């Protein structure tokens, strides 16, 4: 079986990436007859002098052919006598950097093209840093368009020197710099007579010869994607082996439970195998029942652990800024968990590698951040394990991929433990003869949250209950006075209210929290913090009614743009999906609305 090399082409726009790979495929006779004929016919339209336009083999989108640039990632599969290849031709334009990062995430080697007439550009540096960030350890710098500088050795050596200087700050294992002409084919398949001063391998022979194999002794790691249970007699754990190998009879550890078991059976598709290796999708059956579900990991690595906080290098992919305090979904391996950026250590200047202070991050910027997750997750540093050391951040509102990153350090919290107290929450509840709850009132400004929370508390006290009312506006005057009104600050405002409510519940109190909490993700976070005591009460009064009341004059100011990001006007309110109680105060008096809430609460008290 031939060894497989997965590589990408990258570099600045119009540096000749698609042309290079197209020429490589054409001259290597790796095209079908109909592909070759179609290329020759297409090249007669729009190319200079009817010459073959090799880029057409890769640029399949109409917009790509019209503009002469690559927009999407184009994958091609080919085989020579020596090796099998998968190549991803990635876009060079800054606007499509996210597409380039997607291509880099699968590759073992990168061909970074540099225009000999321009030298190292900012986009060249950006792509080199992204390659290093995404774990590519082998890079070929193809100095293209050498024919336009008359194959001058001095020009080539200058570019080579500039790149090697840049690479001193990047973690590449091998660097090969090759002078080429993608249009004419110099040094692509065979050595060119135009560069007698270049005595090393041409591009294709180099790709055939390079060794990119990872350590064959790497520990076995299988992130679980699915548990297969076709009948009561079979329970198999499915996923792709990310590193190492496994055989029937081997002992594995199931994380995070740390249970041990013996491999009883290995299935690759529907075939029973005695052994499986990295890259293969498998179903593994164990000798005994263990606590494993999607997101768990089967491994032989005794050092693999869980963590809840880590520092990472990230690349911003979305047009929305990456900000401190905003909630995201973090996907590591097959695990997806809520997370928040707690700090931006610095961003990295693409031009010179300098570290620059930053409060937020814009699209295509690289930075180091600290990220905290809602609960411990199985992870590793990227240098130790690529799959469990890399992640993406997903915007919980738009579901766009906000950023990708690699983990640099895990912050262990073993020095901090929850203190067990003798007087428990259950004892405090029994003392007060009530069930501790948090009644979370949500709705637009002017809907009646604070008014109804106040009335409900009065009723509860008359019934002999012990209560505490947390009003969002009042907390803004004290505990949350240092918070602004941007999305991240609002999210932190709600988190703090939820944490206080949880503490009050542990004291045995019924807590009433009145706050707009406009985003579903923030209400979900509050529910996760508070737990089963969380009761969501949606005051569903429509915007027109709320605005007509406008007791504080806030809507009028928002309409005049005197208040930014005002919920319902210039900032969204996401209607709760499954609130426990819904009250519309449009046609109900305060007393009637309070009665409705009290009747609904009867089953919870």
Note the main attributes of this structure:
Elongation Factor Tu (Ef-tu), domain 3, 6-stranded mixed β-sheet, 30 strands, TRAFAC_GTPase_members, alpha+beta, 8-stranded antiparallel β-sheet, about 600 residues, multifunctional enzyme, about 25% helix, globular, single chain, 4 domains, EC 2.7.1.25, sulfate adenylyltransferase (ATP) activity, Rossmann fold
Explain what this protein looks like in three dimensions.
- The chain has 605 residues and is α+β, with helices and mostly antiparallel strands.
- It has 4 domains: 4-209, P-loop containing nucleotide triphosphate hydrolases (Rossmann fold, 3-Layer(aba) Sandwich), CATH 3.40.50.300; 221-299, Translation factors (Elongation Factor Tu (Ef-tu), domain 3); 305-410, Elongation Factor Tu (Ef-tu), domain 3, CATH 2.40.30.10; 425-601, Rossmann fold.
- Helix content is 25%, strand content 30%.
- The protein is built from 15 helices and 30 strands.
- The strands form 6 sheets. Strands 7, 8, 9, 11, 12, 13, 15 and 16 form an 8-stranded antiparallel β-sheet that branches. The chain has a 6-stranded mixed β-sheet with strand order 2-3-1-4-5-6, with helices on both faces. The chain has a 6-stranded antiparallel β-barrel with strand order 17-23-20-19-24-25.
- Helix 9 crosses helix 15 (590-601) and helix 11 (487-506) packs parallel to helix 12.
- The protein is globular.
- This is Adenylyl-sulfate kinase.
- It comes from Metalysinibacillus jejuensis.
- It catalyses: adenosine 5'-phosphosulfate + ATP = 3'-phosphoadenylyl sulfate + ADP + H(+); sulfate + ATP + H(+) = adenosine 5'-phosphosulfate + diphosphate.
